[in-house]
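Action item from last meeting closed. Structure (447 res):
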């Protein structure tokens, strides 16, 4: 006899429908509208109704059948112990560019897990390759109208995709995008560019074929492969040069012009790293089409600059905090450091009593080619900041920390780094307004 699938409730959102109905942590969800819930896709679809019948089993075994009337799409306010309400699907590929394969041994287990789960694409914006999705999974996405689905494409050449993903089914998986397009499912695509492999003419082909999926394919990001120093035994990949970056940007900009003329959208976007490598100015905000791929490192620096300058321009004439002399330091990755330095100079010209020192942190742990802040470790921060004049506060971007915790990538805690440096650390959200507030000394800790 098949065992009924139930889902343990971890917490209840205050003021929610669930709290009003006295649903509590530890209760089990048995069914919604008489349907056993397989995973979060089923759950989200079933609760998007105005009238529901929900069966809850209490820890003592008592079952409650709850009849609920609510507004369409109102959430119940239930957070499950397992966010997917099912097992996580791991990646079946062995991509030649995979960053997880470039991790050193001895780190926490979760850092080695390769997810390739379409449900995480819908819930968290993760990118998936479509290689482990069955027709049934595509059917459910279409039936439930789940969107957006973020797809890690790499190339539209089926044979080349099989090579890049080391998966003989990777080329056929591209056909699933056609089904999603025909069903009107919103998609976003990502191309991790590898020198001499999927750039040049292959990039042209990919952008041409992906643009045929407009308007349901809403955007394509082109980002450079990340190469750590731990690549022994892996596929030989070369770093891009300044000239390479400029060629990539010429291709991206040309396709932006084509898509703007035909569709009224830039469609193709280059990751911020390309502009720094090419030594070219960042595009203006309107070029990012509302920052549709911000979490993919596309437009983060432009948005940071604009938000900070807006905050600085709109401040009241007399800002009490800035009239008090103070020394502040900021540590960040090599990618963002020149921009933070530029903003610090602008702030100090307006508020000369504030002294702000910006420290670019080299990534010795993964190697100097890794320049983003999110892959810095506590030990690299300590090694390069010890003995420095850090002032009254040391500002660190929240991207350095494990989500929801005060822990760096290498498991050093913020408290441990504070103690080692004898510095008062403030974690700052990754936006210009919060950086401005931190320079004033106003901001609260993130946690």
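Sequence:
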């Amino acid at each position: 006899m098949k065992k009924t699938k139930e889902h343990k409730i971890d917490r209840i959102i205050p003021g929610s429908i669930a709290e009003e109905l006295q649903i509590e942590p530890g209760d089990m969800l048995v069914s919604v509208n008489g349907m056993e819930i397989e995973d979060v896709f089923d759950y989200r679809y079933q609760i998007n109704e105005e009238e529901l019948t929900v069966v809850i089993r209490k820890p003592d075994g008592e079952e409650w059948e709850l009849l609920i009337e609510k507004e369409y799409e109102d959430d119940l306010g239930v957070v499950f112990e397992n966010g997917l309400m099912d097992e996580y699907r791991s990646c079946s590929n062995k991509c030649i560019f995979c960053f997880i394969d470039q991790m050193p041994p001895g780190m926490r287990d979760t850092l080695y897990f390769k997810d390739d789960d379409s449900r995480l694409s819908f819930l968290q914006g993760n990118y998936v390759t479509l290689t482990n999705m069955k027709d049934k999974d595509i059917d459910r996405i279409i039936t439930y109208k789940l969107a957006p689905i973020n797809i890690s494409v790499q190339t539209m050449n089926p044979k080349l995709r099989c090579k890049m993903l080391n998966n003989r089914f990777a080329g056929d998986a591209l056909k699933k995008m056609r089904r999603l397009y025909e069903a009107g499912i919103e998609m976003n695509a990502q191309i991790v560019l590898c020198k001499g492999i999927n750039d040049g003419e292959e990039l042209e082909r990919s952008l041409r074929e992906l643009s045929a999926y407009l308007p349901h394919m809403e955007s394509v990001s082109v980002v450079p492969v990340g190469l750590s120093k731990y690549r022994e035994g892996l596929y030989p990949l070369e770093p891009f040069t300044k000239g390479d970056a400029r060629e990539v940007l010429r291709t991206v900009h040309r396709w932006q012009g084509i898509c703007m003329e035909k569709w009224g959208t830039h469609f193709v976007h280059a990751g911020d790293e390309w502009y720094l490598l090419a030594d070219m100015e960042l595009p203006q905000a309107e070029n990012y089409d509302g920052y549709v791929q911000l979490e993919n490192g596309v437009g983060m620096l432009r948005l940071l600059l604009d938000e900070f300058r807006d905050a600085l321009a709109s401040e009241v004439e007399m800002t009490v905090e800035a009239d008090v002399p103070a020394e502040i330091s900021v540590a960040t990755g090599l990618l963002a450091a020149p921009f933070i330095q530029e903003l610090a100079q602008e702030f100090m010209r307006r508020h000369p009593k504030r002294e702000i020192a910006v420290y670019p942190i080299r990534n010795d742990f993964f190697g100097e080619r890794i320049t983003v802040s999110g892959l810095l470790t506590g030990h690299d921060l300590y090694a390069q900041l010890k003995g420095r004049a850090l002032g009254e506060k040391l500002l660190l971007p929240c991207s350095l920390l494990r989500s929801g915790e005060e822990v760096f990538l290498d498991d050093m805690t913020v408290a441990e780094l504070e103690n080692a440096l004898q510095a008062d650390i403030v974690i700052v959200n990754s936006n210009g307004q919060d950086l401005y507030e931190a320079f004033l000394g106003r901001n609260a800790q993130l946690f």
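Note appended to the action item: The chain is about 30% helix and 15% strand.
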